[in-house]
Amino acid sequence: MIRIFNNFSSQLFSGFGWTILSSLLTLVFSLIFGVLLALLEVIPNKVANKIGRTYVEIFRNIPLLIIVMFFYLIVPKYFVKIDGFTAGTIGLFLYTSAFIAEIIRSGIQSVSQGQMEGARSTGMTYKQAMRYVILPQAFKIVIPPLGNQFVNLIKDSSILAFVAGFDLMYQANAIASVTFDTFNSYFVIGVLYLIITMPLSYYMQHLEKKMA
C-alpha cells in the first residue's frame, strides 16, 4: 500500500482533487435544484406538482450509469462537445437532485399544517411563510437523511471512472492496470474516500445535535 502511494502520489492527489471538485459542484447545485423541485411538488398548483413529480420519478428510477452515459455519448455526438468530467458531473447532479428533492419534500410535509396557517394569519404571503417558517423547520428535520445523501454523493462520484473523469476510481483502475496489484490499488483509494466521507459524516452528526 505504501509503495502504491509513494510511486503514484501525483495521480492519487489529482484523482482526489477531481473527486472533491465534482462532489462539491454536484452538492451545491443539486441542493439548490432539489429545493426548487421540492417546492414544485408542494405548492398549490397542479401543473407545478406534476412537473416536479415527473422529474423526480424519472431520475430516481433510471440507473446513474445510464444518465452519465447519455451525456458522455449522446450529447457530444448530437448537441455540444463536453468532456468526461463534465458529462459525469452533470449526470450526477441530475440524479442526486431527484433524491434531495424527495428528502426536502418529506421534510416540508412533516411540518404541521398549522404552521403555514399561523404564518398566513399574521399577514405573510405563501412565499414568505415558506421561506421564513416552513423551510427552516423542514431543514432541521431532514438533516440526517440529507447528510446520508451527501455521503452517497461522494461515493457515487466514482461513476466518473466510466467516462474518463480522472477521479479517484479512474486513477485506481489506471494504477491497477500498470502494477497488477489490484488489492493495494483499490485499498489506497478506499482510504482516500474515507478521508473525504468520514469528516462529512461526523460534521452532519454534529450539526444534527446542534440543531436539535
From TrEMBL:
Compartments, record wording: Cell membrane
Protein name: Glutamine ABC transporter permease
Family per record: Belongs to the binding-protein-dependent transport system permease family.
UniProt keyword list: Cell membrane, Membrane, Transmembrane, Transmembrane helix, Transport
Keyword Iron-sulfur: no
Matches recorded under PANTHER family: GLUTAMINE ABC TRANSPORTER PERMEASE PROTEIN GLNM-RELATED, MEMBRANE COMPONENT OF AMINO ACID ABC TRANSPORTER
Domain ABC transmembrane type-1: from-to ranges: 16-204
Regions that span the bilayer: 20-40, 61-79, 85-104
SUPFAM superfamilies xref list: MetI-like (SSF161098)
Species this protein is from: Lactobacillus kullabergensis
Main localization, broad class: membrane
InterPro entries: AA_ABC_transptr_permease_3TM (IPR010065), ArtM/GltK/GlnP/TcyL/YhdX-like (IPR043429), MetI-like (IPR000515), MetI-like_sf (IPR035906)
NCBIfam families to which the protein is assigned, alphabetical: HEQRo_perm_3TM
Membrane topology: Multi-pass membrane protein
